[in-house]
Amino acid sequence: MCNRTVLSFLMSFALVLGACGSGEAETSAPTTSAPGTAASPTIQPAATTAAPVPVTTAASTTATPTTTTSAPIPDQRYDLLTDEVVYHEDDDGAWEMKVFYPEAEGPWPLVVVYHGIPEGPSVTEARAIAARGAVAMAPRWVKVYPPTMTREEYIDGALFDRAACAVNAGQQLAADYGADHSRTTISGFSAGMHAAGWVGLGLVRNDLCQSPLLSQPRGVVLGDSQFLFYEGGWDESMANPGSPAADTLDRFVNPDRYNVAEDVSVYLWTSDHRHGRDVEISPGTASWIGQRDTTGTLLDDLMAIGAFDDEWIDWTDCGRLMEKRMSTAGIDVVHESVGGGHYYGAAVYDAIEEIMGR
Predict the structure, then answer these.
(1) Could you tell me the fold of the domain covering 9-49+58-356?
(2) pTM of model > 0.85
(3) Which residues are CB-neighbours of 332 under 8 A, at least 6 positions away?
């Protein structure tokens, strides 16, 4: 059995739920163009300071975390303009979205980039994507950080339902920034994978949005995250028949639940960071991984990709599992181990550019 360091609940929560966006303030000159949509976009000053994450001790088995930073921005080709709009309003207040778009005339593809936890929005990532020739939008989709937010509150899907509204509003605004909403790509990693996957794979449970989705995304880029919600903090929710956790999980890992465009392309990536959890070589249905078998084939599928061989389930196993299942369902998908740390590297930017250019 592999020996792994026992980390604090909150440290694992912050890492498992998501990696940080860069939190940098943009330096390009703001514009005043953002004609209204049903989401009532407005111009607001930038504010991207990250909230600190307190650390206490609690039982949770994960890999030792590495520092989460953004790689240097590669291959900038276009000068950018910036904007900020409100894409949704609810009882939790106004939800802002950064917009980066080339000064040159389009039409450009539209890319919506979801940040991880605790920081956001994904300013560095969105700027780097826009600089390659796209209108990139970076919504903030969660404001409440641990210990205030529980695992149950996270996995019930309401946060992801709200996050989907960024794409709806973004498509409504696309033409104002020179983008073509029919060429939409969704990207997210770590916790941002959950938000991005929810909208990119058509998993929305409750439509909370004030404007409709105009086009199904044609590209979905998901990285370094746990499709299986394997971290121990979710075991109780998974075992609770009154919790929506199992249904939320099933939406992510069961391609029969997807509502995607026929020509959608999916790119899955994992870094060298091995965040994960111990597992037996031959786990049974009563094991923690067996309790997550929403399709009746999970253990067999994981066995087929060799996920149990090292007695450890991690992000790479999740990516390979989803590659297998999506391929079987006829979805154009590839999983790639890109190396490096828990951030967007050059290979990820290259993949996004390839997908958004199709």
Answers:
(1) Rossmann fold (3.40.50)
(2) no
(3) 263, 264, 265, 266
